[in-house]
Amino acid sequence: MSEDCTLDGSSLTLEAIEHIAYDQEAKTKIKLSLSAQKKMNQSREFLCSRLDSPIYGVNTGFGLLSKVKVSDEKLGLLQINLLRSSAAGVGKPLSIPEVRAAILLRANTLTQGYSGVTPELVDALLALLNYAVHPWIPEQGSVGASGDLAPLAHLALVLIGEGKAYYQEKLYTGSEALKKAGLKPYTLLPKEGLSLINGTQIMTAIGVLAFLKAESLSQMADIAGAMTVEAFAGSKTPYDPAIHRIRPHPGQVEVASHMLKLLENSEIMQSHEHCEKIQDPYSLRCIPQVHGAIRDVLKQVRKTLEIEINSVTDNPLVFTDENKILTGGNFHGEYIAIAMDLLCIAVAELANISERRLEKLINPALSDLPAFLIKEGGLNSGLMLVQVSAAALVSENKILCHPASVDSIPTSADKEDHVSMGPIAARKAREVVENTWNVIAMEFFAASQGLEFRKPLKPARLVEKAYTAIREKVPPVTEDRAFYEDIHAISNLMKLKKLLF
To answer: Would you tell me how many other CB atoms lie within 10 Å of the CB of residue 359?
Structure first.
């Protein structure tokens, strides 16, 4: 990506969000396109021309109080009061990358020019990114209906010099953080407070970053699975394209092809071509069917996210070309809620099948490898507790996979009588991805150890490439040691994409 990013409201990508989210030193500068500025100015002028009539959230109260008319001299205070009263979040704060992603997404949705806000408001949001002022946003408090009201209010308060924010890794009041960055508080105009908090940007920000991690994890799971197949002395026959041609789910065909590529020209496999084994366990044999189903779900989730990040989720909406201002429900987070629940389920299955493969490696009743992959068993326990740790994470995932989107609770005196629980779904997905990441790291650890007992035979070239990358950081296990350091080292290799090819 270039050093500058221009927002036009319609061309933002998931990869651009990821880049800017993790660019905590603000090396990439973001600005508003000229065409977007023009459209926003037209939208603002049209909105102002209609202020003689009641417009929800502009010169009226909110929710059940929408029938209350607010006098012209108090319209600015109305917006400030909305941010203050909505900032009712609790819990631990969102990570800085999640905060940066949320700011970018909120700016992008306003950029389309359907919210009736000024370009200066978007410029103020982008200044937070460009000067690395990161609002402190507690992650709990949104039901994902009228947008992520509470967390977005914590974000928006910093713009007006209130709330709290991080600057150069220290937490300050919003006013202090802006001052240290050389920025001034923004003065809200009518509707601008509402437009800062009406939308799905918190759940989407969390969801995008969790999804992209899951997407790369799905590729690495194939590689971990291939390494396990080699260490277990398994067969590549189940990946024959003839099998998958007659059940042609795209993900299944894709994974089977990937597995054959990963296992190409293996000395280990050639050594047991005519062994007595007839069929491998499902966790090895059915990798294409399971990993493939997961990939197809990920494609569906990607499509939902790609639409959402370039959508307008405000209310009310200003349509200058059609000469109307409409109230609707684009802020409702059902699409993201369901997508994140699907992501939970799919990624949890990666952990389920990975843990079973790990167990096959350490269980001497199921493989011809030493118990727990250690030579002097008894004196040494080997990887016994690595599998226990993986089992714990898998079981935790099962609890987290209960869908949030099937729940609802009425809020705002029953005006908001159906809610999405999208932020909860997104946070659960983030946890499941992290748990599964660690389970895959554990499988890599066990599989690389299993390969030690296949020497001097070599695995396939790509499996050996992954094995070599692991061995640069994690030595073979000859006696018990604190294995958490090895798991962490492999996890870091995964983050650096050293085990992704």
So the answer is: 18
